[in-house]
User: Fold these one by one.
Assistant:
Number 1:
Amino acid sequence: MLAGPVVSNHRFASLLRLAGEAIRVEAQFGTQSLEALAWVASTVGASVYVPESLVRTPTGLRFALANPPLRVGAFSSLSLRVDGVVVPSDRVRVRLGPACPWRETALLTPSEPLELAAGTPIEFDADWPLREGGGEITLRLEFHNVAIPPLVWLEVRGTPREMEFP
Amino acid sequence: MSEPRVAGAAGRRAPVLLTSSASAVLADGRGDLCYARESRGAITEWGGVYAQLVRLTGPWTLELADGSTTTDLPSCRLDDAPFPGGWRSHHRWNGLSIVQDVVAISPPAGAVRRLQIRSTSERPVPLTLRSRFSPYLFPVLVEGIRPLEFEVRTAADDISVRHHGFGLRVATTVPPSRLTLDGRPWIGGQYRGALTAFASEHEVTVPAAGSLEVRWQLVGGLVRDLDAAVADAGGRVGSPDEWAARRADDLRRWTEGTPELEFPDAPEFERAYRSARTALRQLYTAPAPEMVGLVAGYPWYSAIWCRDLAVMLPALLWLGDFEWVARSLDTVFRFQSHQSLPMLAGEPGELPMQISPGPIFLYGTSDSTLRFPAVVEQMHRHTGDLSSVTEWADALHRIVEWGMGRSDPATGLLRHGGEAEQISETTAALTHVRYGIDSPDTTIWDSADRRDHALDVEVLWWETLRSAGQLHGHAADRERQATCEGLATRLAATMRDRYLWPEERYLFDSLRGSKPVARVRPNALRAVSAGLLDPSAARAAVDRATEEDLTTPWGVRSLSSRDPGYDPRAYHDGQVWTIATSWAADAAFSVGARARGIEYLRTIASRFEAEDGFANECYRGDRAEPYNSCFLLGFSVAPFLSLLFERLWGIRAGGMDDTVRVVPAFPDGWKSARLRGLRLAQGTLDLEWSPGTVTARWNGRRTLSIDTGGSVREVLPGTTASLDLPPFAER
């Protein structure tokens, strides 16, 4: 019952497996390597998706990133999936911070790409109504860089907050 | 204020790169440590200070204000130039003459900037100097992520900024009078939170008809090393003159220990050799006492990538830096995995993709591990030192076992692909936020899917088996030697049997399952250079590679322009890579096509010259324009250096039994060539070539046996011998 209701058996097994690996890394390469790995993992985990930014809007949802995920550069397409379903690109908008205009992701092309640098904040707004009273959802973003083909992706599991109006 | 300038396109001036043993400074040469460069298709700012493979800062600017007006350094710049060990810019503003010196330092690792301000005014001139930088404090390897939160502290002598265990300390010879965090005044003490820009102001007065000097020192890396290094240095701000003199002396001594090459008939090759040698030296790094290597390139690969290191180390053997090679190999093999580590995609026997004094970054490439056995074997041939051969043979045996675990027992082919997927699987259930790059394969062209049996990876596997077999032989382990030789023989037969592509008179790029992947890539030429094909097939492949769909005037494409998947901007599916041009040169020489080999080398040399001594990573496939390219990559200089010795001079070291083979491939029309100071085992060798003859002077402790292809001659220590060369068989 150690895992209890808050930690699934699957997750508990994963945690145990990871802990075992961490011990092996420490045994072979020392505490400092393991510690530094933890710094990096912690920073990467905390520096892209803005915690609690996922909110339900009158037409769908909105969320934000504080850094591009793992790659800088020009992105010729960007797709959003909600619980595995692709949101049509003409219903997804993106902007690089509140001072920038929204851009429809359907209009991103190799010659009109979305340009992301380290530290660039990115906001997403999608017309994709979420089911009433629904719980946790999974968002998946896929970015296609103009120079390096493999997709860069980000997955976030979270429960949307209700949007606060002033 | 001056406008930002973007580098990376053709015709722009070269960047400023200053390096020390554990730090680097990047700038655009206009006066501040700013450097905007196209990266991955968009403009990214790479200027600033790097140390211990950690990016310490983003752009770092200095401004001067006299109460009514303000200037930045680029706006008042007169000129700039490197000086031995550093870089200097001259500026003039409001009657003041300003000289700025910038030097990379270590230890502590970082940079020193100095402003010397001279006034001709009859009255003292009060000034405010403003320093502003953006803290970064994250390993360079993690692309695209800048930490959000930092801890800032003021102390008696300096100001520190930290993020986890990464940190920087900045000190000045003139204490700050005002501090700001993101433009907000800060009285000092301790701050923890978001931070984009840290700035300090320093009030100074330039004496009447006099001058003053202000220095900034910004150092950092891992906090655990940083504080000790600063303490050891006495906490003082270093003198750029002393640091620069030390760096210049270090470079001079290193250069004096390397061979000199003279090609009177091709002075462009002499210049290219010297340029590539200096460029390679800039990549040396020792980010921690027990960690030595070369960084892959600048700006965004300024980390130790083991694949790149393995490509560079043979050039260091030719340059005679045996110690750096040995220490680099010791460093990498210390990280050889002894257990399965799915979290890092590591398997027993495997070598990592990237290493640093902080975290180890991932195993899980198909080729990094396979590149090292041949380097170990070559090190033994150059040094002649077999004292540790048993330990090395054991380490290589672990690699062979790792490779055997991935091999098809029937064909001997090694399977690659899927390496990175296990990392994602390992962490899938643990976090609410996951990231990844859908990279199903991790060969040298790691953005292309070349599963399951890319030919160049099979060649590396064959070289691994052959090198391991040779080392086991030296270690008198006949059983393992025979096993490796048997596996290598079978693998070679499979490659000859499965990869020939008669319709194209070339070689298939890969096998997916057992089905050939019919794509024309330069990687296949590695099988030619390895001597795995019969002469007619090898020659046909070299001829095919010279067609214009693969070979351009600025180098060799990563994929034929006739391929349906060709894209001139795609990193590994169309762009021109200098390392691919080196492969083509290597293959051409290996089949006796001297003229073609020379032309490929000349293409590379012309790039070095056009790029002011730097060597771009890659270019667009449709024009000679760097695109998504580091401005200096070890891949682009080291193979060129090796080819000058291995193919043009035709030298093969045999230091273990005091032999050397010298079969030059100088083209018709050349009248002479000289090589002085080639380090070999316990001595140095000088060679002088003229058509039909090579004269050798040997300065060693034991007799050297020289094989010129037609005859073998014993040369006594301290003597000179003239040897006849057989006619070159041009094919």
Number 2:
Amino acid sequence: MRLMQEMSQRALDLGVPMSVHFDITYRCNERCVHCYLDHDDHGEMTTAEIKRVLDELADAGTFFLTFSGGEVLMRRDFFELLEYARRLMFNVRIKTNAVMIGEAEARRMLELGVDQIQVSIYSHRHEVHDAITKLPGSLRRSVEAIRFLAQQGLRVTIANVLMTANMRDHAGVLALARELGVQYTLDPTITPKMDGDTSILNLRIPGSELNGVFHNESLVGNVEEFCAAPPLPDEDVMEGYPCSAGHTLAYISPYGDVFPCVQFPLPSGNVRRQKFLDIWNHSPELNDVRSIRARDLPVCSSCSHVGTCTRCPGLAYMEGNMRGPSTADCEKSFQRTGIRSANMIRLDGNHDGRVPSGPLIHILPLSA
Amino acid sequence: MSDKYIAKYIAKSSAIASRLLGGEMMVMSAADSTFFTLNPVATAIWQAADGLTPLSEIVADHVCTKFEVDPETAYRDVERFVDELSRYGILMVSDQPFADSATSPTEAA
């Protein structure tokens, strides 16, 4: 792991887009209630266009390539693209609902040397999972596919997005993952739709449930460590950058739009009009993202969580200011540690109408 | 130099991912996600591993001419390196040229 961190640091120092998340389609065979995408095809890139982009990414130094969507297998040329990507020596990861993966597809993924496959599972209960995906039989088919993939020896991770409809089912999904012999990851993040529609945010699990998740040893490991109060931020923290988005990570949409990250819909260029590397090196938007340091964040720089918060600049951007707080992450920091964020204190000194259960710790910025 | 050694050919496995980063090759095995970085000498050998060029020629052309090292030492060190990578399954070794080399079309960065 240390070697990987060293290479990530080198990629950062050299300005190399080491990881690219490439949504090759927004079309999907499921209609998940929390999905942030528009599934209509508004003119996605052709096979030849995507291959050209892959060539450009290889030239730019991209090593980790995630094919995602939509559902990647909705593209008839998926395996042609996968084969091409592997010939270019990318480390390929796939995000899928796996509904269209049978034994033959699983075998092909193994032959092509896919590194990891992440499958979305919302519940171990058919009635809950299928109600979220709106595709009858989807849990049965996804689980069957996971068995095929695991039998091939492929590394599979079940991604369990938590929302109000399935917030009590994580233990069941974790048990399912163990039974299948695959990894499990939980994500309580529901993001606004890419067009800015925030109506799906009401699916976010309430703070009390989040608190339970963060204090569940089977999910987070060492609870004491995970939920520890944040240490006093030092100079390194204040000079640090918020996340890898736009630094060593880029996102490309099926239409060729380049963003800093899949959760950060800041239009930064389009690979149909410009070479990827020109966008990566010269986009004013990406350079703006790169210029941000923790000390520059008007609210978060004065927050005790500044060094440990999962603050997502993309979510902050969708709230109106990429340098501002991401309230969803404020909530996570609060539920994890019991310590209210600077933004919560700033807003009204009261949280969710309840008396805060944790101590009120608020530090002044180091630069003040 | 090549006459002194038993013919040996090396080719990259198709079950790996690799990319050049700041002059050093990153290599990851798809089988078990083992991650390696190769120093500039090893990177030069890796890039020359086309399955068709004898190892002795690779050492002569890509190591002895670029780095200050005598041929005997260079070949011995390269053999050790090749053996190690082959144990991890990321480099294939044969006494015959590979018919279908798994070399990548692009590795530059």
Number 3:
Amino acid sequence: MAEREPMMAEKVVPPIMEPGYTFATVTDKISSIVLTHKTPRGWYIGFGISFALFMMFLYAVSVLFVRGIGVWGVNIPVGWGFAIVNFVWWIGIGHAGTLISAILLLLKQDWRTSINRFAEAMTLFAVACAGVYPLLHLGRPWLAYWLFPYPNTMSVWPQFRSPLIWDVFAVSTYAIVSLMFWFVGLIPDLATLRDRATGRVQKVIYGLLAMGWRGSAKHWSRYETMYLLLAGLATPLVVSVHTVVSFDFAISILPGWHTTIFPPYFVAGAIYSGFAMVMTLAIPIRKFYHLEGFITMRHLQNMSKVMLAMGLVVAYGYGMEIFMGLLYSGNPHEHFQTVNRITGPYGIFYAALILCNILTPQLMWMRRTRNSVWALFVISIIVNIGMWLERFVIVVSSLSRDFLPSSWGMYAGTRYDWMTFVGSIGLFLTLLFLFLRFLPTISIFEVRAMLPAAAIKEKH
Amino acid sequence: MQQKKDRMNDEVGPIQFGSGNGFSLPVLGQDTPTTPESPDPIAAGSRDAASSEVLAFQKSVEGKSGKQYWRSIDEWAGTPEFEAYVKREYPSQVEVIVDPFSRRRFLQLMGASLALAGFSSCAYQPKEELLPYVRQPEEIVAGKPLYFATAMPMSGGAAPLLVRSNEGRPTKIEGNPEHPATLGGTDIFSQASILGLYDPERSQAVTYTGEIHSWSSFIGEIRVALGVEKSNGGQGLRILTEPVISPTLGKQIMDLLKLYPNATWYQYESAASDGAFQAAQEVFGEPVRPIYHFEKADRILSLDADFLASHPKNLRYIKDYTKKRNPEAGNTPNRLYAVETTATATGGNSDHRIPMKPSEVEMFARGVAAAIGVGAAAEVPEAFSLMIEEVAKDLKAHRGSSLVIAGDEQPAAVHALAYAMNGALGNAGSTVVFTKPLEVNPVAQLNGLRELVADMQQRKVTTLIILGGNPVYAAPADLNFAGALESVQLRIYHGLYNDETSSYCHWHVPEAHYLETWSDTRAYDGTISIVQPLIAPLYQGKSKHEVLAAIIDQSDHTSYEIVRAYWKSQGALNTEASWRQAVHDGFLKESALPAGGLTAKQTSGLLTNVTPQQQPASNTFEVNFRLDPTIHDGQFANNGWLQELPKTMTKLTWDNAAFFSPRDARNLRLENSMGSSGGDFEVDVVELELAGRKIKAPAWILPGQPDGVVTLHLGYGRTRAGHVGTATGFNANLIRNTGTPWNATGLIVRSTAERYVMAQTQTHHSMEGWNLVHETTFDEYREHPDYIHEEEPPTPRDLSLFPNWPYNGYAWGLAIDLNSCVGCSACTVACQSENNIPVVGKEQVMMSREMHWIRIDRYFTGSGDNPNGSVFQPVPCMHCENAPCEVVCPVGATVHSAEGTNDMVYNRCVGTRYCSNNCPYKVRRFNFLLFNDWTSASLKLLRNPEVTVRSRGIMEKCTYCIQRIQNAKIESEKENRLVRDGEIVTACQSACPADAITFGNINDPNSKVAKLKASKRNYSLLDDLNTRPRTTYLSVLRNPNPALKPTKTENA
């Protein structure tokens, strides 16, 4: 048996769903997580820790607002620090949700159904975390609305040539579309919860949120059209948002930032980190709520394959950067920056990111790694760290040493930088725990459609 | 006060102070916490009680865990302890200053630090009352500044100034362009003195053992004491002053000595150059001093003379030296051989930098002298023989137009050799002239001080009057001045600050700032300046003249009367018209000290007797003491601008350090490790022992420092300087000896396990092979004048699809001649003063957040350990025509004007800092916290009303002094003409003693700036980025001796 296992593993593809589920058991299983009266102790512990981190975030932000941006480590020359690193990192993480729910939907990848709901939730929460940073990093955050084109008595518009304005549009569009897509996907399940809820309060709240869904054929028909349209709307956003974010760097004249490879390289990196984050979240959730039947090894394997592919795209990006800088461009400043990035004062970060983002994920070529939940969990966390390091290296190493050696300077985050960063993870987890407790983590109606009994139903 | 004001107006007439309105300062008067006229009953507590109160308060703060932040002065002040403390004593009385925490806190009061950042609201509106003039004073037009001539007294020569006065408050120091001693340049000390005027920590009241008394009670008490002294002719009376240059003050002291014939007058300052004094006595038989004419000198040998350092006495030298090297001016360039014992600006700007140990300077000088034919033949170290031969040959080839200058710190022998060489080379009378000394009564200062201390120890001194200076801090340690001082029965100290000396004295009389009182002084060449006040004393300050008048029973005489009376008795100013003219001009014409037809004795023993060199123990170092480049001898320690001004060579701020050569540092395993915050450097602390005395000092590795030499700067380590200056750096006076005040041998260096963090503004010193500063020799420039553009063709202007923007009217531009810039940093301080630029404090400099709008980049050239020299590059905003900052600002807060300047709209800025990231020159400065002090009353008076005081969270940068541009345009439009060339002078340009900065309209081909930009030497920094800077640079040219290996042509 032991000898034959590899052979078997090659042939046997794990199912999308464990056998034995019926319409009723699917509904029972998923809705019971939400409708139970006994909140598991583990949830309280997890939520408590997350909420404490979130409070730390609020504290750090309060200090920031009261005293000014100087409580962070940013300086001249390094005008952007943790805030922008974290912004790009969170936005990137969000991408996997949209990719899973929209692009995989359009590509009719059935396996996506059991992970798309919380991947989308993750997107929303990550965008929320990302969205606060551009606001926080302003010198005068109370004037952030000046970045929006609104009619005003000053007759002043934003400066539309600035990539930061493009960011405002890209990110706000992304947030709105993601929210709509997620909420529309929730409606049939909210109706299920409404119908199964026993408490009065639950009935009212879920009832309001379900917006009168009765599950009629007309509803379903319009619903599916709408869902497809939204998926179509969300699809270009997967590419556009991080492209625009990369323009924040690529439009500038800084060596190491001013490169045309940034848009595709950023998008790949975003999907890479997003899948890593879905994996990081899916593995403990399926364990804790005993959802191995819905989120099977098939899902984990598929996601690890996507990560492997995206990791290689990112590696190609790194390679091209070095090629351009050292061999092709002939620009002494580019050349210096490329060398500096690898061997300069932040070289250790670069080495760490290569280890995290390129070397470690290569383990996933091995089927044995892809079959090991633990290995995937660890690798996904390493990739998350690596992608944060990548953004740190991009933002800080270019800024700290640019054209005039006289103005070079180092940068390090202060405790408020770290508190804000770790605290935003707390914000993310707080929202996630609330989501796990009050909304169905897995799309009930879509999973039901996956059952063999539903096979007669024509799929969209 | 009223009486005095009226008198002033009556007498001054045309000088126009405005009928007294210039002196009335209602705002400040209200805020002065205690006055002698109304002493607060609580204020009568002893100093001990006050300090224990403060300690208790500090404890209450320190007791809380973690760092305590406070958001406003009110909150901080809200504690009952603090209220009690304020009532009891104004902070100047208090010894909180030893605690760096509270010092840091006070930086905020000085507009200097981070904790005031609590004002989160952008809508901070100060409450103000508008009081219209009942009668409009003549010549005062609201919003129109007036300029008055005055001079800042300084030892070695005063700085002649024009001071801008806005509605009666002096706001900006400018040079006096008509004054022959400077021709308009200024130095960092005079530029920053305006902040000293408004320093809220200056002494504010007469005190007796710390208790506030009135001026009249002081006079009463001192009369009693002096009555006793008079009975024996003042046998127990001693007067200690700084070297007195003021003729009036000299006369007053002489009068005093007539009244007390047995009294003795001593003079001392840290900068005492007894070597020069002794040499002059020896060689000329009288205390003459040399004046150099660099405009006539073709070959210069500097024997450790830092004559390009920022000091009023050097302003003319800098101008003449740099002008001689300006190829556009058509002069034949000079050649400077700079012997130096530590890296200085003079060595950096020289053609041949000759680093050596202090003990070798004399041998080198003897070698050159012998080769010229002066003195006895000397043995010279092998390493210098070629150099000595070539230098001597070169000097001899330029008889009458060469120049040998010895540094103030050098011993008498070197000065004597320099005098003799100048004599032998026929330079005396052409490049060097000798005049009578500036001082009324020059003395060998350290001998005098030694005598005074001995008298004090023997209890011969019953009354000691200390006028100015800070001898308790500044006296060399071997004297134990403070200990001796305590045996004097009555000790009176007159000084600007409640400092180390005042804490040892019974009476402390606050000194009036030079901008608050009448006096007179001389510039380096002896030209008389009348020191004219710009404002009535802000506190209860008294001038030296008034204090002396009180001592000699003329206490009703005001400074004005005393100075005027003295000059009435002198021929040149005895008429009202001539007096008015001199006050108006700021100096008395033709009053420079005449050059005497003196020749040096060629037979002096100094020339032949080699000073015996002590054979120092092995493994010891030589040490040289130098005045600090920015805070001088410590008198400017409480001046935030000077503390934060990067030192010329090291770019360190807020600290001094023991300088080690890179090789010595390797041998001693000393390390300077770059920190992670931006401008922080962690360095090893060493213990230095000289003649049994020990201090600890951070070790700084300085390229260009000679091996085996440790350089220590005086002026730091103050214990009672005020909250800005106290406990910055270490006190090198503590191992200084009277025998070897400047250079000593036998310094033992021990490493310690301690580390210290220093704040540096420029952490990289090589150009990474990029041609940021173009440098070549005069010869190569003559052969290939267009070498810069042949190497790097300028970026074509038609790369864009869009047509170039037409600048039809004015097109402002700036040209900076790097060949003239000596790195003195006067421009940085002038800009800080003109543009209300805040001080941020050491902690913020460590985070690379200094706010200077124009910085001086210093790059070493040549090899790493021992650079050939250095180049200085002032970097203001480039005002790029294709400005990278403008396109990335999301709100349009930085925009281009139709005249080509890149303007900041402060109100529109939301603070994304993208503009700074995208600025390749990194000239933008960001208010990370509320750096500007919005609350201190006296600092409000300091501000230039034409420049916005920036708040937290916005970007700022050089504006080309847009307010000056606008003023000139308004004037020109009123007269229906164009702005004339030279009519607009930016603050940096006006301050520059070397005329390295030129501003003007580049659309006018006849303007000076356009002509400079047409020079082949002109280039744009980072031209390949196609930013098209409006600020351009002119390359550096050196004139090395072809016989010596040319090593200066390439940058490291």
Number 4:
Amino acid sequence: MRNKRKFLNLHCGNRGIIFTLDTFVAVIVFVLLLGLSSYYIGLSQGLRDVDLPTIRTGSDILALLDHKNILQTMNVDSIEINRDNALPDLYDMKIKADCKDSSGSSSGSIETLEAIPEDKFIGSGKRVFVKDNDNYCIARFFIWTK
Amino acid sequence: MDKVRRGVLFTAGITGMMMVVLVFALVIYNNAINSRERTSEVGVIDRVNDIELSIKKSLKDIFDLEANINVTVDGKNVIFNEELPNDEDDDFRDAMDNFKAYLELEFKENPKGKINATKITDKLPLTIKPNSITYTHPEGFGGKEINIIPEEFNFNAYELDFNTKGQSSGNLNQDEGHICSSGSSCIQLIIKTNSNLKFNESVDMGVNNKLILDIGGGTIVIKIQNPGILIIENNAGKVEVKSKVYLNKFDNKRISISYPENIIEVDLSSLNIFKRGTVDIAY
């Protein structure tokens, strides 16, 4: 009886078990809460998937080519040279353009040679431009960081 | 007992701290979701803006290619140079209609693009801003008449130079004229043919004035009506009209010449974005 009382009143050598159990539960709660916190913070990082500066860079380059009447030439070499002169080294960019004449028939298309990667964020956009008095075109850009 | 209490407090404290960390993490997560939505919307608005700007540039390119009107801003003055009648009217109308059809086909929805081409092609009105002076063709673009229509006396002078393109240039007769020396409606009128001065007087533009210039076998009639509305009517063969409007300064505001308002509409109904705009032809 005395031993049992001692056990229940924690006056004998069973403190180690209780301490271990207490620590175990505390660690589980601690790790669980920390894990949940890390999980949500990790999710937050993953949500930042729209890279506006990259898209804006692509849009600016395409606008520049339009305003300098480079797109209107529909010459891939000329477009690539002028694009590379203006594009920051950090980025790669692909340009496509499709034209139609006043009857609605296709009147030419061009595409620069870059392959679009599948494992990166790709920014894209488009603009309309007038090639000449009878041909209207849409140019599209695809931009990504190297 | 004291030790037990301390232990409980320690455990409760650590748990509380971890709950705070968890709440912060949830707040960060929630903010990230909101931030992504806002960023996506900003991205879409940027793209809509790009499309609108490219449509504006295209419409300006069509004007430069097809309208056969040269518009320049010379300091605080604006010069329109155009043949009268203008033979390029049909080409301009065709180009505008074709571009409108192309655009409305390519941008059927999200975003939906629209051009009010008839507002332009009918009389081809061009507005000088900020003075709100309209250069237009009241008989229709391609007709024999040009009007310059101010809303008030907010300009300094008109200068007209007619290139007669080989036609003989005769007398300038003042059929109805009110020469003046002072007053807000007393504004200088200069008329030249082939850069040779024919008339240079201050005229009361608050009342009707009429001048008739003999060109070849016909005449060019120049009328002025209140408040300084200038009407050029060519009853001779084709001439090139250089119309210079000397403008008052408007607190150094930029002078621009544009199509009428609300020529372009871009509608992205999925995000409740609706934009209307016009096109600057020169500035």
